[in-house]
Write a structure and sequence with these properties.
The complex is a heterodimer.
Chain A lengths: L5 E5 L2 E5 L1 H4 L2 H8 L4 H9 L1 H9 L1 H4 L7 H23 L5 H13 L7 H22 L5 H9 L2 H6 L14 H16 L33 H10 L5 H13 L9 H21 L2 H9 L3 E3 L11 H7 L5 H12 L11 H8 L3 H30 L3 H25 L1 H20 L8 H10 L3 H18 L6 H7 L26 H6 L11 H13 L9 H33 L5 H11 L4 H23 L3 H13 L3 H13 L7 H8 L14 H11 L6 H5 L4 E2 L18 H33 L4 E2 L17 H7 E2 L15 E3 L5 H4 L13 H8 L10 H7 L4 E3 L10 H17 L3 H19 L1
Parallel strand pairs in A: 3-8
Antiparallel strand pairs in A: 1-2, 5-6
Helix pairs in contact in A: 2-13, 3-6, 6-8, 20-21, 22-23, 28-29, 29-33, 29-35, 30-35, 31-32
Chain B lengths: L1 H8 L2 H6 L9 H13 L9 H23 L20 H5 L15 H28 L20 H7 L2 H4 L3 E4 L6 E5 L5 E6 L3 E6 L4 E7 L4 E6 L5 E6 L2 E6 L4 E9 L1 E7 L4 E6 L3 E6 L4 E7 L7 E4 L6 E4 L4 E5 L8 E4 L5 E6 L5 E6 L3 E6 L4 E7 L6 E4 L5 E5 L2 E5 L12 E4 L4 E6 L5 E6 L2 E6 L19 H13 L19 H15 L21 H38 L20
Antiparallel strand pairs in B: 1-28, 2-3, 3-4, 4-5, 6-7, 7-8, 8-9, 10-11, 11-12, 12-13, 14-15, 15-16, 16-17, 18-19, 19-20, 20-21, 22-23, 23-24, 24-25, 26-27, 27-28
């Protein structure tokens, strides 16, 4: 036996130790004391047994190298620890009885060395059990263990399961037993293991249901109980004893594991904290998105529109091997890669150009641009010239030039000349294919009609045909023919002629480019002509005034002259009027003045008189309103009947009269309709006034309608007198005129009373009617002349609530219809939509229209902006961690920029706090 | 310094010859060149150490910021921040013009959704207000001016010839006379854009022309009496009220329709947003023709005899009719009776006109009066006496009133606010005035008279800012077509014509009340009613009957108090105002007998 291993219990586990470990017994003992509770408990039950075992410690000293006492100690503890552990493992399979027997046997009989072999086997068995336990419960595996595993025989391995089975006939049928065990093992490997009921081995009062001896179950075990034996055994060193004492004092036991729900709760808590931390990181971005006026999905879209070239070029990378190869070559040859137009250094150098340089460069560019535009303009102009002759000449010149060139070409460059020839041939082919110049077009047809009579048309047609002939003629080999057939198409003006650089005549002379280049002065055709014409106009306008007078002065003078003339005229008029006024008698003064007013109201002198007159007039009309004499009324009504359609009827009459197309003044007729002189108003009896006043007081209405109507009127002076006044009418129309006047005077009153009646009727109709439900004769005497009693009437006459006050309540001269307009109410909102409770709230929101008709385009865009915009067809990915990072970075920057001061302050505070914490 | 001068003296030619260097050509050399030059500027003195470092740090900070800005795609053009970020603020006074009445009482906290809705609508209206004010500031810059005479010179004495001479040629060309004495007095109408003019002679002559270019579009003689002419929605069609029927012609003079349902039409009005042609006939019928579908919408018998005075309120499309009994009646196609009937004149009403805002109505009657009414309250504003009476009236976009008395056309300025004494302008034409019309968006008044037509200049008459989407005087044919389609799509139904054009946005109170009552019946309580105060039940005998009543009364008193306080405040304010108005006219000390004095009507 080379190296001997030791089995001992450590921390509730069985371990195998080598000699070296065992050499430090103190530590082994210390560990040894930490055997977990259930084992101890079990140990205690077999205390006596253990003691007896300890007594025969010598037997276990299989190794002579170890000191006996240490060895026995180890063996002893390890023995029963291991034993019991095995029992626990096997649970019900264990039969302590059997083991006891064997042990007893051992103790009793096997003291002879012959029998040591069986003891050895047992020992080995124990070893294996212990080892198995080790493999089961500990992850650590020492190399020695492996060694031991190797040592274990096959049969012993098989025996593992039923090492408890009594080995009474160990000497005899060993093979049979082996065979049986093998079978059993095999059967055990298969299906379920047979469970054997535990056998009771000890007589106890309490019987555990777990087939374990329940002796001393209720008692609590102390460490002292366990170490009692140590004190008795002198073999235990003092050191270990002291250790044990210390342990006894400490009484430190391992906490019992937490229950499942408790551990789960803790786990859940931790998980929640972690995940909430994770989620709260998104809080700000989510809040921001909720608050955002508009969200555009997908979120990280590139800005629309064309990107700057540099960005595109820089962003591009060579990916394919070909590209890479090309780029490698480029970089080797130091070619520009990114910006093929301008290298950065070039740009720099451009920027670094001095001001002067830049100016000169700019000027050059300007010049080039200007020249180009001039040339373009010229070409355009030429193209738009319609003159045939001009084009003919032009073409001829071009042709000549072309011929010259062609000649030269023949000498210098025959190849290109040939090309030219081919071009010509192509043109001929085209011409033959097309219907051009065939006299088949619209124009040609019209000309054909005219050709009979018109020489020009005939000629034009002939020309066309000639052209066609020319073009379709086959090319002769000689050059002379080709020249003739040269078409306009062939002479393309694609090469820039020399005159591009020349300045057009008649261009702006102020242009420095023109000035610089041109030797001949630009023809000043337009410039000087303008002032000339202006001057001419001036002269024509006021020839008499002489040349030194300006236009404005002339105008002013004209005005002044005209004004003077007018004033003179007016003065004359006034004089005439004054004469008239002298003639006027006193009694019809008002009327006369009125006439004068209508004659010429521009006069300021008469304006005052006019006002007075108007006042009088209003008084008179008032009087007339009060006058409700039957006679007058009758007369008035008659008048009304006659002149109800005053103006138009008369006008129509006039129309019939004028049918002769004579130069009749229509105005006269019109003036008849509204006579200018209310002369009749003047002879008014004075006493009537008081009478009228009395009646006025009697009026029911608070506001006098007539008064409203004859409100003080402002008299307006008209500067120009209507030409058609009373002059033409004179005495012939006197009667008619008077009638009109009377009508005018009394019509008003009639109108007012009619109107009042109308209004009263309306009001009556609107008033709610009283429902009379009285039954005469019920409960009292009935009959003719008898009325139901007051009490009854009060009770049975139902009065409905008075309607809301009329809209025209305070307005005497207005009737406003109270009828409901159902057509609009059809379109109105009858019931309020959800969040609104009162109509006012709804109306307020309705008052802000959104449409483009009422708002500016910008405003409409802003108002109707959708909350979420999605791109059609684009996949909307969830927000990634990058977004979060970007967002946080942005926020940080905002914070550092110091834009929101309010936000910043608390942050600083927080950071200060943090500092304090760290200090603490 | 010297080096700089030398550098300046170099000509560009030399420099140009230098081939611009490429970066792969000896970049190292360049660096060498740069290194001394960059670090040592000859004239520069080394700055004190502290300041230098400060500057450096500052510069680095700036750079950092700049870089940060660049990183986020904001390309800063200049490194300086904009001192006035955002758009320019709009002054409050300008915004006031576009303010909508959004006043609402403070809503209780628990009505979260309602509060949100109201707040968002208020925010929207704020946006619109701001935007429109901003654009108003920019776009509506044109303003109308008026003719101003010299000292003690009346503007009405200035003749048309003088004005035409004084103004520029194009404006001067707008004063012209068409001598058409043959076919009697002319009625006229300008198209909505003001470009086309339609003339209708009493004796059958109908002509339409582009009056600015004087280009005649068509000229026909219908060989019948013509009562009135009117353009329809565009310048492609017009209606002519002839002796018997109503006819519709197109702009080339081709008769499109003869509408037999409309007979004896005397006057016409076209409602452009409703596509309605309203006609008033000699038989006393007011009829509406829907021009877009060609149907008669309504025919109302006014029972007021011959209707030859008519005008429309451009604000609410109500038709005003003047009658021979001195009343003016207001009509809509939806009601068979007059909405409003006003007694305006003693004699018959000769002419009526309503201003663009629909606030003022001007009438003239046989009693030679010219009256201005406020259409909001139907009260008379001003009353003028015209010696000859006004036969026809017209109001311009800017509120100038033209009145024709006989053969004189007078133009008045601001007739409603201050009583005018003199006309603003006056002009005499050759025959009796038959038709008056201000040209839209032009300072021109068209006068149709017995001798033809006169276009006179009235400075300040036309609205200078036109709405290009509504009526663009410069529109092309294509634009007109597009406008027509849009206008037809936005056509307002005749149902919606009512005195208050904003009625559609209001809740129908009658049905609302009815529905509410039904709801109350069903529920058994009023959900809108403010719940009564119920005193809390107190324990331990502290909730005695008397105590409960006392608490109830307390709350009731508080409510009452609020009302009283507000009324008192109002009273005090009104008293103050009255005092201001009186301005010490009445003696401060009131005698005891003063209370018996009759109070003057307010």
């Amino acid at each position: 036996m080379g190296v001997m291993g030791l089995i001992y219990l450590y921390n509730g586990h069985i371990k195998i130790c080598t000699e070296d470990v065992a050499q430090t017994p103190a530590t082994s003992v210390a560990r040894f004391c930490q055997i977990s509770y259930p084992i101890w408990q079990h140990c205690r039950q077999q205390k006596d047994f253990c003691d007896s075992l300890a007594g025969s410690g010598a037997e276990f000293t299989t190794t002579d190298r170890l000191p006996a006492h240490v060895c026995t100690c180890c063996w002893r503890w390890s023995l029963y620890g291991g034993f019991n552990m095995a029992k626990i493992l096997k649970k019900n399979k264990v039969s302590t009885k059997g083991t006891k027997k064997t042990l007893n046997k051992n103790t009793g009989t096997e003291k002879t060395p012959e029998k040591s072999s069986s003891a050895k086997r047992r020992e080995r068995k124990r070893k294996t059990v212990g080892k198995l336990k080790g493999t089961l419960k500990t992850t650590k595996k020492s190399p020695i263990e492996k060694l031991d595993l190797d040592n274990v025989d096959e049969d012993e391995l098989l025996n593992e399961g039923e090492e408890i089975i009594p080995s009474e006939d160990e000497g005899g049928s060993d093979d049979d037993r082996k065979h049986q065990k093998l079978l059993e093992a095999i059967s055990a490997l298969g299906g379920k293991k047979k469970r054997r009921l535990a056998e009771r081995s000890e007589a106890t009062i309490q019987i555990s249901e777990f087939s374990v001896d329940a002796k001393g179950e209720g008692e609590k075990i102390n460490l002292s109980d366990l170490i009692q034996t140590i004190a008795k055994t002198p073999a235990v060193s003092a050191q270990t004893k002291s250790h044990l004492k210390k342990l006894k004092l400490e009484e430190k036991t391992v906490d019992s594991p937490l229950t499942k729900p408790e551990t789960e709760r803790i786990q859940r808590n931790v998980a929640f904290q972690k995940s909430s931390e994770e989620v709260s990181r998104w809080q700000s971005i989510v809040k921001q998105n909720l608050k955002a006026e508009q969200l555009v999905f997908p979120l990280n879209q590139e800005a629309p529109g064309p990107k700057p070239l540099e960005q595109v070029v820089c962003g591009w990378k060579a990916r394919t091997p070909l590209e890479q190869e090309i780029f490698r070559l480029l970089s080797v040859n130091k070619q520009p890669i990114n910006d093929p137009v301008l290298t950065p250094i070039e740009e720099e150098s451009l920027k670094a150009m001095s001001l002067e340089d830049a100016k000169i460069r700019r000027a050059e560019l300007q010049k080039a641009r200007a020249l180009q535009s001039y040339y373009e303009a010229k070409a355009r102009r030429e193209r738009s010239i319609k003159s045939k002759k001009y084009h003919k000449v032009q073409n001829k010149a071009k042709r000549k030039e072309f011929v010259k060139k062609f000649d030269e070409m023949l000498k210098s460059d025959p190849v290109s000349a040939l090309e030219e020839l081919q071009k010509l041939e192509l043109g001929r082919m085209k011409e033959r294919m097309s219907l051009k110049h065939q006299n088949s077009g619209k124009w040609a047809k019209s000309k054909a009609i005219m050709a009979k009579y018109d020489d020009g048309a005939r000629k034009a047609m002939q020309q066309q045909l000639e052209v066609n002939k020319d073009l379709t003629q086959k090319l002769a080999t000689t050059l002379s023919d080709e020249e003739g057939e040269d078409d306009g198409e062939t002479s393309e003006p694609d090469m820039l002629p020399d005159f591009v650089n020349e300045v057009e005549p008649g261009q702006d002379p102020a242009n420095p480019w023109m000035r610089g280049q041109l030797s001949k002065d630009p023809v000043d055709l337009t410039e000087p002509s303008v002032p000339e014409t202006a001057a001419a106009v001036l002269i024509s306008e006021d020839e008499e005034e002489g040349p030194e007078e300006t236009e404005e002065e002339g105008l002013l003078r004209g005005f002044a002259e005209r004004r003077k003339q007018r004033q003179e005229q007016e003065a004359e008029n006034e004089a005439a009027k004054n004469q008239d006024m002298e003639v006027m008698t006193e009694e019809n003064k008002a009327g006369a003045e009125k006439a004068v007013a209508s004659h010429d109201a521009a006069d300021a002198d008469i304006a005052d008189d006019d006002e007075e007159e108007e006042e009088e007039l209003s008084k008179f009309t008032n009087l007339f309103q009060e006058l409700k004499d039957s006679r007058m009324e009758a007369e008035a009504s008659a008048m009304v009947a006659e002149v109800s359609e005053p103006e138009c009827a008369q006008l129509q009459q006039a129309m019939f009269r004028i049918k002769s197309l004579e130069d009749m003044d229509l105005l006269d007729q019109e003036e008849q309709a509204d006579p200018a002189e209310p002369n009749a108003e003047a002879p008014q009896p004075a006493p009537l006034e008081s009478k009228g006043a009395d009646k006025k007081r009697k009026r029911k209405r608070g506001i006098d309608l007539a008064e409203v109507l004859t409100k003080e009127a402002t008299v307006i002076n008209v500067p120009l007198a209507p030409t058609a006044v009373e002059g033409a009418e004179g005495a012939a129309h006197g009667q008619e005129e008077q009638r009109d006047v009377i009508k005018e005077a009394f019509a008003g009153d009639d109108v007012i009373s009619d109107f009042l009646k109308d209004k009263r009727r309306e009001e009556e109709a609107g008033r709610p009617k009283v429902v009379d439900l009285t039954l005469p004769g019920w409960g009292e005497w009935g009959g003719q002349g008898l009325q139901p009693s007051k009490k009854k009437r009060r009770r049975f006459r139902l009065k409905t609530a008075p309607p809301p006050p009329r809209k025209d309540g305070g307005l005497a001269s207005v009737i406003i219809s109270e009828k409901r307009d159902s057509s609009v109410s059809m379109h109105q909102v009858g019931a309020l939509p959800h969040p609104f409770l009162l109509p006012e709230q709804f109306e307020v929101t309705m008052r802000a229209p959104v449409g483009a008709t009422w708002n500016t385009r910008q405003a409409v865009k802003k108002i109707t902006m959708p909350k979420i915009v999605t791109k059609v067809g684009a996949i909307i990915q969830p927000m990634s961690r990058d977004d979060l990072l970007k967002h946080s970075r942005k926020q940080e920057e905002e914070g550092t920029a110091g834009e929101p001061k309010k936000r910043k302050a608390p942050q600083r505070k927080r950071s200060q706090k943090r500092h304090k914490k760290t200090k603490n | 310094m010297a080096s700089a001068e030398v550098a300046l003296k170099h000509t560009h030619v030399e420099k140009k010859k230098k081939v611009s260097e490429r970066y792969w050509q000896g970049s190292g050399e360049e660096k060498k060149d740069e290194a001394p030059g960059g670090s040592h500027v000859p004239g520069d003195q080394p700055a004190p150490l502290g300041s230098q470092t400060n500057q450096q740090t500052r510069a680095s900070e700036k750079k950092k910021k700049y870089k940060a800005a660049e990183r986020h795609g904001k390309k800063a053009i200049t490194r300086k921040p904009d001192p006035f970020p955002g758009s320019a603020p709009v002054p409050e006074e300008k915004r006031l013009k576009f303010r909508r009445k959004m006043k609402i009482d403070q809503l209780p906290q628990y009505l979260t959704k309602l509060r949100r809705v109201v707040a968002s609508s208020q925010a929207e209206s704020e946006i619109t207000e701001k935007e429109s004010a901003r654009h108003d500031q920019l776009l509506l810059q044109e303003d109308a001016g008026f003719l101003e005479g010299d000292e003690d010179e009346d503007t009405c004495t200035i003749s048309q010839e003088d004005i035409a001479d004084a103004v520029d040629i194009t404006a001067g060309a707008k004063y012209f006379n068409l001598n058409l004495s043959q076919f009697g007095p002319y009625r006229l109408d300008y198209s909505k854009t003001g470009r086309q003019l339609l003339l209708g002679g009493r004796r059958g002559h109908v002509a339409c022309l582009d009056w600015q270019t004087k280009q005649l579009l068509c000229e026909i003689n219908v060989m019948e009496t013509v009562n009135d002419v009117k353009w329809l929605h565009s310048e492609a069609m017009y209606a002519v009220a002839q002796k018997k029927w109503l006819y519709i012609y197109d702009s080339s003079g081709i008769e499109l329709h003869c509408i037999r349902k409309f007979n004896d039409v005397l006057r016409m009005q076209f409602l452009p947003y409703h596509f309605l042609l309203a006609t008033a006939s000699a038989t006393g019928f007011l009829q509406y023709l829907d021009v877009s579908v060609g149907k008669e919408v309504a025919a109302v018998g006014t029972k007021a005899g011959r209707l030859d005075v008519m005008c429309q309120n451009p604000q609410n499309a109500i038709i005003h009719l003047g009658h021979s009994n001195g009343t003016v009646t207001l009509w809509s196609p939806n009601q068979k009776e007059a909405i409003v009937k006003m007694l305006c004149h003693h004699g018959g009403v000769r002419s009526v006109a309503v201003d663009k805002t629909g606030t003022y109505m001007v009438t003239s009657g046989m009693d030679k009066k010219l009256k201005v009414f406020d259409l909001r309250s139907f009260k008379p504003f001003q009353s003028y006496f015209l010696p000859a009476g006004a036969s026809s009236l017209a109001l311009s976009h800017r509120g100038l009133l033209s009145a024709a008395t006989g053969d004189i056309v007078q133009v008045y300025r601001d007739v409603w606010n201050t009583p005018v004494k003199k006309p603003y302008m006056a002009h005499k034409v050759h025959g009796a005035v038959w038709g008056l019309h201000f040209c839209p968006y032009e300072d021109v008044l068209g006068v149709g008279h017995g001798e033809g037509f006169t276009s006179m200049l009235v400075p300040g008459a036309g609205e200078p800012n036109f709405d290009g989407l509504d009526s663009n005087p410069y529109r092309s044919a294509k634009q007109r077509q597009e406008w027509e389609v849009k206008a037809l799509l936005e056509k307002i139904q005749p149902d919606l014509i009512s005195l208050d054009p904003g009625k559609l946005s209001q809740v129908d109170y009658a049905t609302f009340k009815q529905k509410h009552q039904d709801k109350v019946k069903v529920l058994g309580y009023d959900p809108l009613a403010r719940d009564k105060f119920k005193p809390r039940m107190r324990k331990k005998g502290r909730s005695s009957t008397g105590g409960v009543i006392r608490r109830k009364n307390q709350v009731a008193h508080e409510d009452k108090r609020e009302i009283i306080i507000t009324t008192l405040k109002e009273k005090a304010e009104s008293a103050k105002e009255r005092k201001k108005n009186n301005n010490g006219q009445t003696s401060a000390v009131r005698s005891a007998l003063d209370r018996f004095k009759k109070r003057a009507a307010p």
